[in-house]
């Protein structure tokens, strides 16, 4: 199972494992990682599952869809180069160790 490392805005790290095929947002929710609100539960309509993907993993992800790009326009925290919606990141074995920083706020 791929591991995902969530890094809170205060630097606290939390490593979880979740089955390939699950989303990074699901991995956060199942494992009670705080800071991922995910109000729409992955319906791509809330923007509260915003994360910053570590640079070394950014190129391993497929580019965001037009819909994800649209939602990223409305995220509460600063949008950065690595900004993605965690509900749109599908875990794969290749992404083992995926490191995602959680923004200070989602709302
Ligand atoms: S959970 Fe709502 S956009 Fe990702």
Automatic annotation (TrEMBL):
It comes from the Bacteria. Belongs to the adrenodoxin/putidaredoxin family. One of its GO terms (biological process) is P450-containing electron transport chain. The keyword Metal-binding applies. This is 2Fe-2S iron-sulfur cluster binding domain-containing protein. Transmembrane segments: none annotated. Gene3D superfamilies: 3.10.20.30. Residues 2-106 form the 2Fe-2S ferredoxin-type domain. Pfam families: Fer2. PANTHER family: FERREDOXIN-2, MITOCHONDRIAL, FERREDOXIN/ADRENODOXIN. It comes from Afipia massiliensis. One of its GO terms (molecular function) is 2 iron, 2 sulfur cluster binding. Its cofactor is [2Fe-2S] cluster. Keywords: 2Fe-2S, Iron, Iron-sulfur, Metal-binding.
